[in-house]
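Q: How would the structure tokens look for this protein?
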Amino acid sequence: MLFNSFTFLIFFALVCAAMALTNLPVFSAIPREKRLRVRHIILLLASYVFYGWWNWLCCFLMLGLTLVAHLCALQMGRPWRKAALAAGVAVPLLVLGVFKYYNFFVDSFCAVFGISRAGTLRIILPVGISFYTFQSLSYTIDVSRGKLKAETDFVKTALYVAFFPQLVAGPIVKAGDFLPQLEEDRNISLPNLELGVQYFVFGLFKKVVIADNIASFIDAVHSAPAAYSAGTLLLATYAYFVQLYCDFSGYSDMAVGCAKCLGYELPRNFDIPYISRNVGEFWRRWHISLSTWLTEYLYFPLGGSRRGEGRTYLNLFIIMTVCGLWHGAAWTFVLWGALLGVAQCVYRFAAPLRKKLPKSPLVTVISVFFTYTFICFSAVIFRASSIGEAWRIIVYIFTLHEGSFWGVFGLITVWGAHIAACIRSKKLGVPPTGYYPTVNLNSFTGLLIFFTFVGLTLSLGYTGQSPFIYFQF
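A: Here is the predicted structure in token form.
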């Protein structure tokens, strides 16, 4: 079930209606705890219907991982807590490894040693498995660290793992941020609907108007790169990360909006990543929930920056390579992650040189430009079906294949918005940060702007079926 479908809109309207019913006076006589439990059960059932709409058999997999996390967390106060922690970490990683990486490693092994393929499994990759696996892992680990108490109510644990707005493509939510909300009297309200609907429409516009319309151009270029000029390939290279950003951040905006409508808060996942001045800043602004998860649950346990410069560089390289592998079981993702790991190491190594650079708008613009360019060219590897295809596209660009760099004018258009954001932030005297543009729906002007925006979304939106890019991860 896609957010950008009428099926989901009908589904979400029914969920909201069911939640709103618990606000009726007849429910006021019911004790608070029982009333909250009814709401949690409604959301849990809705979450499994939402996930099962794609493939109902995968619901059993998610339910099993949830049960493992719940039971292991309950054992953290017992003498066998270490065994429970090991099981709570090993089981989700094993499931993720089998469903997502088993065939990849078998095929790679056979290719290296020149033997015929054998032992591969015919399995479907469950949508969103990387996201809810990481959430169940973080819950067990946080309980073992004493950051939160184990939840005794299985319904609450299951709702944390399966909460449908962020279930299949994030943001990755920590149990310490979500479970306390289940103890509060949260539900449908007009203020939350006013903001949540605007968040959703904002994300929908980015997805169906910008990302999906760009996608048709990029898919055509990548399907036959030799047929296009270097300028067109360059434009497609820069445009792809615009597509990726609008597609993924659009989903995140819609997820945050849906949760807000229901009375819940999800973390912001993007913070204008394209105005980043270096790769370090980029990863603090892009897919924030994943970068913070990897930092907290992998980088710090590996030693972080506490064990010398050499170990720090190794840790940076490891977490970025893991980040690449998390995105998909292919060597293109591994290479993409490793390249970003090298970039992180170079960024850290060049710290003394960066301090000597003058602080001026020109230096900032140049830094942002080269950071954006590096990210876009690395995304060629991310997007390509093979390393060979990515290499051909890059070679075609730099050898002026069948044309010139006239496509650079497309870059000027893309960058206009970024420069405008920087100038606006400087005038306001605040660092540029991401935000959700909202209006006052109680005013005529606000309603006019909002419905004009809705009209543009309906008239300019791509009408074909275009699943979110991050559904495959």
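The CA atoms of residues 283 and 400 lie 31 Å apart.

The two ends are 16 Å apart (CA to CA).

Upvote if useful.
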